[in-house]
Design a protein that fits this description.
Elements lengths: L7 E4 L8 H8 L1 H4 L8 H18 L5 H16 L5 H9 L10 H8 L4 E6 L3 H11 L5 E4 H4 L6 H13 L7 E5 L2 H10 L3 E5 L22 E3 L2 H13 L1
Parallel strand pairs: 1-2, 1-4, 2-3, 4-5, 5-6
Helix pairs in contact: 3-4, 4-5, 6-11
Amino acid sequence: MKLTDFKVLTLDCYGTLIDWERGMIDGLKPLTRRAARDLTVDAILEAHARHESFQQLKTPCKPYREILAVVYRRLAEDWGVPASWDECLAYGRTIAKWPAFHDSAGALLYLKKHYKLVMLSNIDNESFAASNAKLQVEFDAIYTSEDIGSFKPSQSNFEYLFEKLAHQGYEKSDILHVAESMFHDHEPANKCGLASCWIYRRFDQPGFGAALKPSEMPSYDFRFNSMADLAKAHQEALRS
């Protein structure tokens, strides 16, 4: 299997192209500064992942920015910190401030020359518009959890993806799914027989950060530590 075998890259956004962990830690500072305990970055992210995943399962049609508001409330309760609902809602709006990884925009501009680029993200459309501006590329299609009515790792998200791309003439074998999260992306990709590329942004950090640990470690077809490394590997594949 070679990178040049594919026609479509389906991409996760948050954790892969946008540095959601940095955005979360910064956005939660009004809460963590008031907590009467020492909270490590790992502890904050693990608690966030637990509440986020639970809420996404319980309210799959709720926009992601509103999921984050509920997560903020649950974290405040866990840490014994009072928080108004306006403060919770404000945290949901911080998505617009979450930074892109430094290599994301350049890599996407290169890959756009060689692939159809399709976004498959656990996001609402309004929030993604702000992130898309940072990525500086026009995606060929954007499929969000708000459009689909469920959140990854639900198979419904991938079934939606396959149906839409089939209408455009693409088969599953044409698609390479590019993502960081083992829980949200690679595990469900394995279940539906989709080739995947792991962008291992956390290669120098322990644990799974803002994503839950998968039930078992999924397999993947390619692995790179950044989008820039993926673009470089594609260039090398063209020369080989």
